[in-house]
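Re: the request from the purification team.
They wanted to know what the chain is likely to look like in 3D before they choose a buffer screen. I agreed to run a prediction and write the result into the notebook, where they can find it.
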Amino acid sequence: QLYEKLLERGMDYVTITDHDTIEGCLQISDQPRTFISEQVTTYFPNDPCKLHILVWGISENQHREIDGIRGNIFELQRYLKAAQIAHAVAHPLYSINGKLDSRHLELLILLFKHFEGINGLRDALLSDLAQTLFKQLTPEKIDALANRHNLAPTHTEPCRKIFVGGSDDHGGQFAASVFTETPRADS
């Protein structure tokens, strides 16, 4: 039903980013124009702050590999980059379990290039604030963060972030209310 609803709402391709599982994607994988994705729960080592990383276009084997390393965001980021898996930080300013602080955000800025800039479920103010914050990054600010955390950025042009959108629909009420649009593609 969700697959049909998404097509009716104009989506060209359909995926489901459930938390730490690909079961929903597997249920529709026989349908045309689908791909496997998930929302991965991860952590900084020895840190209880929960974070979510969206991953798209993965295989069942990649899901298993991600599941094995998701407890360490540094290992997860290295794996996603090496495997060239499309990914982004979900709702970067929303504290899932009340533990998110400025240090976590600074590390995310150094680790990731893609961020969810529009989230259909969370307060629009958080989306607006995230976009404003990331658009104000400069090479000097990135250098200061890298020095503060003794961590080099993991990507080129670290002060230039790319935004994606997601509905963050948890009950079938907001499906396709927010989405990511890309240039035309055949796959």
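For the purification team: Residues 71 and 89 are 15 Å apart (CA to CA).
Please add any questions underneath this entry.
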